[in-house]
Design brief:
Length: 178
C-alpha cells in the first residue's frame, strides 16, 4: 500500500571500466529519504531532490558492479523498496551499434513501431533500453503505441562466443508519440 519507487541507470546499460553512470531512485512521495543498498548493505542516505535522488559512479571498477536497491524512509520507517538493479562493469570489445526507429521518430498514437539495433557483428544479441526504466525491453516491436511509450531509447549488444563481449551503448533516439 505504500508509494512505488523505481530505480534506474542514466545512461542505461553496461558500464565500461573507467566509465560513469548515475543511479536514480524516484517515487511519488513527498518528504523523506532514500537509502541506497548494494548487496544488502547500506551504502548511503540520499536526499530527495524533487521526487528523485541520485548516486553517481565515476571511474567505474568491478567493485561498483552488483545488485543495488533503494529504500524509501519517512520518520525512520521503511515505506517502500525498489526492485533490484544489477549494475555491470565490462570492457567494450564490440563496435557501437546504431539504433533506428521505423516508421520514424514521431508517430501517431496507435501506430506500430519497430526498433532496429544494427551492429557490424554476426551472432550478437542486442538489448533495448528506455531511459527511466530498470528493465531491458525484450520487444523490438511495439504494437499500438501510446504516449507512455515515448522517450529516449538506446540499445547495446552482446556477443556470446565463449566469452561475453559487450558493445558500447548506441546513441539515444527520442521517440515522440502524438
Amino acid at each position: 500500500g505504500g508509494p512505488t519507487i523505481s530505480i534506474f541507470l542514466k545512461p542505461p546499460g553496461v558500464i565500461p571500466p573507467g566509465g560513469s553512470t548515475t543511479i536514480y531512485c524516484s517515487c511519488q512521495c513527498d518528504n523523506g529519504n532514500f537509502v541506497l543498498y548494494k548487496k544488502g548493505h547500506q551504502l548511503r542516505t540520499l536526499e530527495l531532490r524533487g521526487r528523485k535522488a541520485e548516486f553517481s559512479i565515476y571511474n567505474a571498477t568491478q567493485e561498483d558492479a552488483g545488485p543495488y536497491s533503494c529504500h524509501y524512509l519517512s520518520g525512520g520507517n521503511v515505506l517502500a523498496r525498489s526492485e533490484t538493479l544489477e549494475v555491470m562493469v565490462q570492457e567494450f570489445r564490440l563496435p557501437r551499434p546504431v539504433l533506428s526507429i521505423l516508421p520514424g521518430l514521431e508517430v501517431t498514437a496507435g501506430a506500430n513501431v519497430t526498433f532496429h539495433c544494427t551492429i557490424a557483428r554476426s551472432r550478437a544479441g542486442c538489448f533495448l533500453y528506455l531511459e527511466g526504466q530498470s528493465k531491458t525491453l525484450n520487444d523490438f516491436i511495439i504494437s499500438h503505441v501510446h504516449e507512455g511509450d515515448g522517450g529516449r531509447y538506446s540499445c547495446q549488444c552482446l556477443a556470446r562466443n565463449g566469452s561475453l563481449e559487450w558493445s558500447a551503448v548506441s546513441k539515444p533516439l527520442e521517440l515522440v508519440v502524438r
